[in-house]
Design brief:
Elements (H helix, E strand, L loop, with lengths): L8 H4 L15 E5 L13 E5 L7 E2 L1 E5 L5 H14 L9 E2 L12 E2 L6 E7 L5 E7 L8 H24 L4 E6 L6 H9 L7 H5 L1 H5 L1 H4 L5 E8 L7 H6 L5 E2 L8 H21 L9 E4 L7 H7 L4 E2 L5 E2 L6 E8 L18 H5 L5 E3 L2 E2 L5 H7 L9 H4 L2 E3 L3 H4 L25 H5 L3 H7 L9 H15 L4 H8 L7 H18 L1
Parallel strand pairs: 4-5, 11-18
Antiparallel strand pairs: 1-2, 2-4, 3-6, 7-8, 9-10, 10-15, 12-15, 13-14, 16-17
Helix pairs in contact: 3-9, 17-19
Bound molecules: cobalamin and iron/sulfur cluster (2 copies).
Subunit structure: Monomer.
Catalytic activity: epoxyqueuosine(34) in tRNA + AH2 = queuosine(34) in tRNA + A + H2O
InterPro entries: 4Fe4S_Fe-S-bd, 4Fe4S_Fe_S_CS, QueG, QueG_DUF1730
Length: 504
């Protein structure tokens, strides 16, 4: 960042203000204005004054944050954050008035090898602004040393990729821990309310956009994909048979969160061993994720060159999109791979195939319309207008992938995701008869279990309402028309009314 520059959209979009690594040793004045980005327009003007002092390896800074923030609370949080993040000497001052003044006695000696300070400011209306600063490594060696380091990190990266292949990952790539280019799209998606009731998407937006808040000092991201396409009854055939339940292919077997993370943990353990022999100036840290934390997984997969982003927004390869993603955040400056070329071309089959027109434009899904959201994430009633479009999809939806030409090249994925309980083609009436105990026992270890028995029944009631009328379907629905849950009763009543209407 240039000296005395304003924080522009480029900087704020990723919620990351990072002057010190580039403007080291220079007094930098930053003015952040609320008009710069949608995310911030509810936030009062902010001034952040950064004063890195004096001898190298000493840090001092002072911030003035007006009105919108609870300064005391912020200062405590920020100080706590700094302490927790291995900057025990760092002092953080946050002043809730309009007159910033230099804090005395705030500088502290830094450890050799550079240091990083991360602090967080929570505004009213749940908006969060994060600033992260990094002081460059003060022990930069001579050119030869740097070249040696690059070679060492490249060797570590290759070893990780080799082990990852052994662990069953179809591809492993490395990205920089930076999602600055993607973050504005996330903010726009949130601003448009496309996350619906997924409050965690809004609440943790800043963490998602700023990897260093999940792992202070994160420099690289190891991105992996694990294929899951199971040997199962043909998906389209099940969709065409209204008496059968369609369960997304990803949920027919074991819960992927555990599988992916366990394998990533092995990679991370290996990485730790490798790093132990490197004698780094800074402490090493890493964390593994697979849909388990606010991480921009698809963007990392894209950046790391293990996939491109399809117009359905999912990561896609020449072997298709039936894979899960996972990541290791690391403080090692591993060499980043290059993104691969995109191969969607003029195709728009996924947009046309979507039953609810949830892919509102290429690369843009409105979750509120997506059957995956309606059947998995939404807690309350499914909007009546969307129910007929859901068909027999009782958990998730695959239509935008089933139609994708690249999925013709998919191979059977990891055995962990093999079909359990005949979930690939079970009659709706059978699943609707499961008691809560049956549900919990049969779906132990399945991702489906997390929606709970009530939402499971809600989804099946909708599918039964869409099924061709038959005595068995009416009988199944009638068996639950007096259910204690008003929400389920209403869905059952809706389904029965449809059958009454269709049979005259
Ligand atoms: C929230 C979420 C959902 C939501 C919202 C989906 C969505 N597209 O956003 C719902 C519940 C609907 C959902 C559904 C599904 N999900 Co989901 N989901 C996630 C989650 C947790 C976050 C995704 C996210 O950040 N969305 C926010 C929006 C803003 O991001 P985005 O749509 O990807 O938008 C980006 C780009 O499209 C781009 N962009 C936007 N507009 C524009 C315009 C232009 C011109 C350009 C160039 C770019 C661009 O910028 C955005 C930011 O990078 C991720 C896990 C993770 N932590 O990343 C899994 C994840 C994406 N889901 C996954 C899966 C498997 C699914 C389903 C297939 C499940 C199913 N069978 O039912 C469906 C597919 C629906 C679909 N077409 O997306 C997998 C995808 C694996 C893969 N192959 O890519 C992930 C990665 C989980 C995992 N670890 O494996 N999901
Ligand atoms: S998962 Fe289904 S509803 Fe969601 S975008 Fe894909 S096709 Fe549309
Ligand atoms: S269906 Fe076509 S546009 Fe959609 S992701 Fe596949 S190749 Fe891309």
């Amino acid at each position: 960042m240039e000296d005395k520059d304003e924080v522009g959209r480029r900087h704020l979009a990723c919620s990351l203000v990072r002057p010190l690594d580039q403007a080291h040793g220079i007094v930098t004045e930053i003015l952040a204005k609320p008009c710069i980005h949608e995310l911030f327009w509810k936030v009062e003007p902010i001034e952040i004054k950064v004063i890195p002092v004096y001898p190298r390896n000493h840090i001092n800074f002072n911030q003035c944050i007006r009105r919108a923030f609870d300064g005391t609370d912020m200062a405590e949080q920020a100080q706590h954050g700094a302490d927790q993040r291995s900057f025990p000497g760092a002092k953080v001052a946050v002043e809730p008035d309009d007159h910033p003044r230099r804090q005395q006695g705030r500088q502290s000696a830094a450890k050799p090898g550079g240091r990083r300070i991360v602090w967080k400011m929570q505004a009213e209306s749940r908006l969060v602004i994060i600033a992260a600063m990094q002081e460059g490594n003060s022990q930069t060696g001579a050119d030869g040393g740097v070249a040696d380091q690059h070679a060492t990190y490249a060797t570590v990266a290759q070893k990780i990729k080799d082990l990852g292949q052994e662990l069953g990952f179809a591809s492993i790539g490395i990205a920089r821990a930076d999602v600055a280019a993607a973050a504005p799209w996330l903010m726009r998606w949130l601003a448009l309310g496309r996350h619906g009731e997924m409050d965690y998407m809004a609440k943790h937006a800043a963490l998602r956009a700023t990897p260093q808040l999940l792992l202070p000092g994160a420099l690289s991201v190891i991105s992996v994909r694990l294929p899951y396409w199971p040997a199962a009854v043909d998906g389209q055939a099940v969709l065409d048979d209204g008496q059968l339940a369609y369960v997304s292919r990803y949920a027919l077997g074991r819960d992927y969160h555990k599988t992916v993370r366990q394998r990533l943990q092995k990679l991370a353990d290996f990485l730790r061993q490798e790093v132990a022999s490197l004698e780094l100036a800074e402490p090493f840290a890493c964390r593994v994720f697979s849909d388990s934390a606010p991480v921009m997984e698809t963007d990392f997969a894209r950046q790391a060159g293990i996939a491109w982003r399809g117009k359905h927004t999912l990561s896609l390869t020449r072997d298709g999109s039936w894979h899960f993603l996972g990541e290791i955040y690391s403080t090692l400056p591993l060499p980043a791979d290059a993104p691969i070329a995109e191969h969607c071309g003029h195709c728009r089959r996924c947009l046309d195939a979507c039953p609810t027109a949830a892919i509102v434009a290429p690369y843009e899904v409105d979750a509120r319309l997506c059957i995956s959201y309606l059947t998995i994430e939404l807690h309350g009633a499914i909007p009546v207008a969307l129910r007929p479009l859901i068909g027999n999809r009782i958990y998730g939806c695959d239509d935008c992938q089933l139609c994708c030409p690249w999925n013709r090249f998919a191979r059977i994925g990891d055995p962990d995701f093999a079909v359990r309980n005949g979930l690939d083609a079970t009659p709706l009436t059978t699943l609707f008869a499961w008691s809560e105990e049956d549900f919990n026992a049969r779906l132990a270890g399945s991702p489906i279990r997390r929606i709970g028995h009530l939402r499971w029944l809600r989804n099946i009631a909708v599918a039964l309402g869409n099924a061709p009328s038959a005595p068995a379907i009416i009988a199944a629905l009638s068996s639950r028309q007096d259910d204690p849950s008003p929400m389920l009763r209403e869905h059952v009543a809706w389904a029965l009314a449809r059958h009454r209407a269709s049979t005259g």
